Please model this.
Amino acid sequence: MTERAFVPGHVTGFFSAHPNDDPLVAGSRGAGLALSDGVQVAATPAEETTLAVNGERVEMAAVANVLDGFAVDARVECETVLPVSAGFGVSGACALGTALALDAHAPDHPDLTPRTENELVALAHAAEVEAGTGLGDVVGQARGGVPLRLEPGAPPHGRLDGLPARPEVEYVTFGGLDTAEILTGDTAALTRAGEAALDRLLDDPSAGTFMAASRTFAREAGLLTDRVATTIEDVQDAGGEAAMAMLGRTVFALGSGLSDAGYDARRCSVTSGARR
Ligand SMILES: Nc1ncnc2c1ncn2[C@@H]1O[C@H](COP(=O)(O)OP(=O)(O)OP(=O)(O)O)[C@@H](O)[C@H]1O
Ligand SMILES: CC(C)(CO)[C@@H](O)C(=O)[O-]
Model:
């Protein structure tokens, strides 16, 4: 029998990086959006481990690490409309979805013992941090809504809050950015900009300030690419709010911001946290 879980996509608007030898303590502070466009994960214990994303066999260290944590092999199938590496936290979603779906097999599987939600989130977070593909997506995806990461890390280390806003969101993607490469580089400027952005948002916790702080962050962190910058300007010129999704060549906008500016954008909404 196959068990399933849904994990929302997660776009980070701004973040600061907080490495630590303990992957449960390591993480990011920052803010993002949990999106109804996400990843549907099916997992079944199997003789041999295989992972497919949209029917294509792939390797994803975050998922492999989750399976190592359970000490079982499994067939994992992820279906998503989201592009990988474009700032939607797809690897975090696949990792958390695998943890949630595999745990559903615990009652009938001799090698699996049931875990709590915090334990599953912690397992997926550590798996993602050790893979180098994310720092804060998993905890944001588990919480849902508009997650604010006040302190880095998995439960019980991290601390989350959220904005009560539940906006509609549009996005366009022009390509990927290598998250692992950026996170292993010099993150000092990025982290300074991310901390300033979080202070600004906590002073005025609104969707508009989230978007403005995210724009300032992308510029100060030196992450803006030309096409992304032009698109954000186009949306603002048309009276909308847009920012760059970390870490990808992706622009997200509130409401119909991108289509109002003439872009062929995908529309989704902010949604609640991962569920099976
Ligand atoms: N088609 C693919 N393109 C890119 N990466 C892939 C692909 N298939 C599997 N992978 C693996 O998926 C992971 C992608 O992680 P990455 O952090 O770049 O993207 P992401 O999880 O979508 O997050 P981000 O929000 O940072 O863009 C890597 O482990 C990579 O090896
Ligand atoms: C590092 C990151 C931007 C990669 O998507 C994300 O995991 C985050 O916000 O910590």
In short: Residues 188-203 form the longest helix (16 residues). The chain has two domains: 3-161, 162-269.
